[in-house]
Amino acid sequence: MARRASIRIDLARRGRYRLLQHRNRSGPMQQIIEKLLILQDRDRRIMHTREQLARVQPEREAFQGNAASTQAGLDAVKTKAKQVESDRKNLELEVETKKQQIARYGLQQFQTKKNEEYRALAHEIEVCKEAISKLEDRQLELMEEAENLQKEAVIAGREAETARKAAEGQLRELAAREQNLRNELTALESNRNQLTADVDERFLRHYERLLRNKGDNVLVGIEHGVCGGCHTRFPVQLLVSCRAAKEMVTCPNCGRILYYSPSMDLAAVD
Ligand SMILES: [Zn+2]
Prior knowledge:
This protein folds into two domains: 25-46 and 198-269, Orthogonal Bundle (Helix Hairpins), CATH 1.10.287; 56-194. It contains six helices and three strands; from the N terminus they run H-H-H-H-H-E-E-H-E. It has helices at 2-13, 16-24, 29-111, 115-197, 201-214, 236-244, and strands at 219-223, 226-227, 257-259. It has a three-stranded mixed beta sheet. The site of zinc ion has 8 residues, from loops.
């Protein structure tokens, strides 16, 4: 009882209660409708806040994804650079092997007394020298490639650092926004509990059933004689009883709770 009285005082303070009492001159349902409209407003805000909260995680993943993909770009360049360096070292070893072969052939040439064998060894030496020349060309190419990769790595490193810092800032902002939304939701939900405590159980159950089935558009106004939810045109009698507000009036088609306020044009169009 105390809570009811205090809410009444609160409403009166805001001019709502008086407005309902004096301007409307309507039945007891009007007060219930008024409470349910405030409840509906809370529920809309709760749903809206929950929707915003649901978007936080995908947004977080997108920010993290951006930073991760630029970092992956940098890692790829570094891996490539390592590969090139290792290829170049392998070439060095191959050159070394060829040089040793040449030395061996040279020694054999020195030891042989057969002209034919001497010429064959000279040919082998020539083949080795050509191979070395090709290996050295390839080494030069790889050195050039390594140099380019070095430059690429510097750029990619800068990009990764920028992306990392950007993501850090974005994630910090997002975390703050998430916390605000959570606080807001907690406040709204506790406010909702207070509001429902003041609504007759019977109407509340009806309202909540509709809320589950129809989403956040449970109480709808009548404008130009049609349902604000499904746009069904109403017979005059229904408009009259809605205006009288003596009982709960629902749409015969969609079941939503109907209400009327003086600003609405109630006239049924025949
Ligand atoms: Zn309807």
